[in-house]
Each structure stands twice: as structure tokens, then as C-alpha cells.
């Protein structure tokens, strides 16, 4: 199982990357088998994303990242909040991805910001974006303000760990129940189709039509 984490933090170290790592760790710990986790730092791809807009084609490095994101079994997307919405780099990256490529993919959304006042950006900005992309977004979105990293015993700010655990549990549940799509040349039970005898349970179309005809007198 492959889990890709997209982090749009602009600094190093970054609270956005820290939140992304905690979400990935929490999700991995709840799955029956540890997934293959890949973290994508968008700040390293900023020039590539801009060039893709100008030329209309992603270069080799960006194309490889896009393929990893679209082929993943699950996605964690984390962005800093600027002016009440996701960052321009975050939006630009998902703009260069085919709008149908994330259809049906389980996604956990998260964001960071300087104040808790921007937490609603998850609902009025990020969730509509991924709904448009037809991704399956988990119910719990995680927002971490600057004070959430304090850990001073305040129940109103120490709930970050609980929110991470709840969101990770929802994503892990979707991933655990996500059945792989059957490959071409395989039966529904996963066995390879080797000859026509494997198709004996398929009723020919002509036989189905004959069964619908009224009996002759």
C-alpha cells in the first residue's frame, strides 16, 4: 500500500511538514501492514510547477511526482493558510494534475496557520477543492495553529493529538477497506484467465436472448 503526503510548507523547518509527518505516522500505525510512505515537499517543485503552467507540460521530475500522487492508495494534503485560504503553490500543484486523476481516492486534509481564526479555511476552501476533484475526503480535517504546538496543559489547545488520531483513524479505515481493482485478464476472484474454461460461468448473449423469447405453441 502506498501513502503519499503532500506538504506545501515554505520554510525549513516547517510546521506544515511537522503536521504532515505526524499525520502520516499516525495513519501508518493504524494499518494492518506499514504502508510505503512518500513525502512531497512542494517548495522544492515551485519552479517546476510554474514552468508547467507556461509550457503546458510538466518536466520529468514533476511528472514523476504527479504519477506518484495519482497512483497512491491514499493521500494526505497539508497546506499553510494565507489570507484565509490555501497557499498559491498548493493550489497550483493540484491545478497541473488531471482533474479526474484523484476521483475516488481517500484524502486527509490538514492545514497550519498562525491563529485558530483561519481554521474554517479547511471547510470553505480545501474541502470544496477536493470535492470538485471527486476525492473521498475523510470527515475530520486537522488544523494546527501556533498555540497548538505549546502543550501547556490547556484542554482547548492540547486537542491536536486527538484530532490527528481521529483523522488518521478515518483515513486508515478507508485504506484498509479499499479493495484493489482487478487487473485486465483476471477474474473477479483474482485468478488469472488462462483459457475459455475459466469463463464457463459467463452466459453467452445469444442464450440470454433465447431465454427471453416466449415459448412457441
UniProtKB/TrEMBL annotation:
<dbReference type="GO" id="GO:0016491">
    <property type="term" value="F:oxidoreductase activity"/>
</dbReference>
<feature type="compositionally biased region" description="Basic and acidic residues">
    <location>
        <begin position="176"/>
        <end position="194"/>
    </location>
</feature>
<keyword id="KW-0288">FMN</keyword>
<keyword id="KW-0560">Oxidoreductase</keyword>
<feature type="domain" description="NADPH-dependent FMN reductase-like">
    <location>
        <begin position="1"/>
        <end position="149"/>
    </location>
</feature>
<keyword id="KW-0285">Flavoprotein</keyword>
<dbReference type="Pfam" id="PF03358">
    <property type="entry name" value="FMN_red"/>
</dbReference>
<dbReference type="InterPro" id="IPR023932">
    <property type="entry name" value="CE1759_FMN_reduct"/>
</dbReference>
<feature type="region of interest" description="Disordered">
    <location>
        <begin position="176"/>
        <end position="199"/>
    </location>
</feature>
<dbReference type="InterPro" id="IPR051814">
    <property type="entry name" value="NAD(P)H-dep_FMN_reductase"/>
</dbReference>
<dbReference type="InterPro" id="IPR029039">
    <property type="entry name" value="Flavoprotein-like_sf"/>
</dbReference>
<dbReference type="InterPro" id="IPR005025">
    <property type="entry name" value="FMN_Rdtase-like_dom"/>
</dbReference>
<protein>
    <submittedName>
        <fullName>FMN reductase</fullName>
    </submittedName>
</protein>
